[in-house]
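Deliverable D2.4 — example input (structure tokens):
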């Protein structure tokens, strides 16, 4: 039975989930142009040139789906907390920059990283997301008061001046081929001016943290994580087949100890596979998405099909329409729980994106003893 004083505990992506944060769609805005965003929006996207508050009907629909997801989790005995939305439709600024609005608080995974008894607020690499941690502060403060061993940390807030972004990425006519060449060379929109990372670029494997180097996390950010988590081994990975490398959880998804599904268009490079292969982990190509395009006004990839939430090593939540991904995970021995969420994708992502762990049963273990 869980000790009442232990509120925060989560070492990996698959131990039995008992307490989680699920985001909200309230007041979400399509961000105005800024360097980090401009590099991310696909060149053929219907998002080009549009910004401001999302419509009430789409917000209401997304919230209904998120609320239904919460009900599914609660019926399985999982405690769910929700963030407190800010007024996102307001100009924010620092002495270095200003933007017309904030973003939202649906993708909790982007902002909050839970490692053991610590919850860490990520730096964030978009200006519009600079204050996003404030949506979660009331919850984190509550956990801190209730759990005497819980640690609350915040990574250094970056200045996010123009020096943080490469001007090469500001053109809207780069083309996919050039983007893929740049990704191969690890030439991303973010520079090494200061440490940058989003929490959704980090996967937890017990004593090892696997971090994607890409648009939203730079090498200085990975170095900061290495220095911060001194008892962990931190591994930088990259995926050359991704022209828009943002967040690892639609590319490389651990399902249970020893098993990972990998986006077949963004395979882990051979030399980086060694860590997993030497320790008996199986990496299999994820099933194809059920859709050929993202929903309207959504700049996420169709590969949110593999953005699943593992409830325990035998149970996984998969978006309801992603029938091929569900079928694959069923054949891999998982109980699949279908969850309708596609009409909420535009607010920040899929089932893994919209959640942040608070408590998973389990302890720190070494899944990669051969290194």
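Example output (designed residues):
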């Amino acid at each position: 039975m869980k000790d009442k004083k232990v509120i925060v505990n989560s070492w990996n992506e698959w131990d039995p989930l008992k307490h989680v944060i699920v985001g909200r769609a309230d007041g979400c805005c399509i961000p105005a142009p800024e360097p980090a965003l401009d590099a991310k929006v696909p060149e053929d996207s219907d998002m080009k040139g549009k910004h401001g508050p999302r419509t009430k009907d789409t917000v209401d629909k997304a919230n209904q789906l998120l609320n239904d997801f919460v009900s599914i989790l609660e019926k399985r005995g999982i405690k769910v907390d929700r963030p407190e939305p800010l007024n996102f439709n307001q100009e924010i600024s620092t002495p270095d920059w200003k933007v017309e609005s904030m973003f939202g608080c649906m993708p909790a995974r982007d902002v909050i990283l839970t490692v053991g008894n610590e919850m860490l607020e990520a730096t964030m690499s978009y200006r519009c997301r600079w204050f996003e941690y404030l949506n979660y502060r009331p919850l984190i403060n509550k956990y801190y008061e209730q759990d005497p061993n819980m640690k609350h940390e915040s990574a250094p807030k970056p200045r996010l001046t123009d020096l943080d972004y490469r001007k090469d990425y500001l053109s809207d006519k780069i083309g996919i081929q050039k983007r893929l060449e740049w990704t191969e060379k690890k030439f991303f929109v973010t520079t090494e001016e200061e440490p940058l990372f989003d929490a959704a670029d980090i996967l937890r494997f017990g004593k090892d943290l696997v971090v994607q180097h890409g648009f939203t996390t730079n090498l200085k950010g990975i170095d900061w994580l290495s220095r911060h988590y001194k008892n962990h081994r931190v591994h930088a990975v990259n995926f050359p087949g991704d022209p828009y490398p943002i967040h690892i959880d639609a590319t490389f998804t651990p399902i249970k100890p020893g098993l990972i599904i990998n986006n077949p268009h963004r395979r882990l490079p051979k030399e980086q596979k060694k860590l997993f292969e030497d320790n008996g982990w199986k990496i299999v190509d994820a099933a194809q998405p059920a859709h050929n395009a993202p929903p309207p006004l959504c700049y996420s990839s169709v590969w949110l099909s593999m953005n699943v939430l593992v409830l325990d090593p035998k149970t996984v939540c998969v978006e309801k329409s992603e029938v091929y991904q569900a079928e694959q995970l069923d054949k891999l021995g998982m109980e699949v729980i279908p969850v309708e969420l596609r009409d909420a994708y535009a607010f920040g992502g899929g089932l893994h994106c919209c959640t942040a762990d608070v408590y998973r049963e389990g302890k720190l273990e070494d899944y990669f003893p051969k290194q």
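Residues 17-360 form a domain with the L-arginine/glycine Amidinotransferase; Chain A fold (CATH 3.75.10.10).
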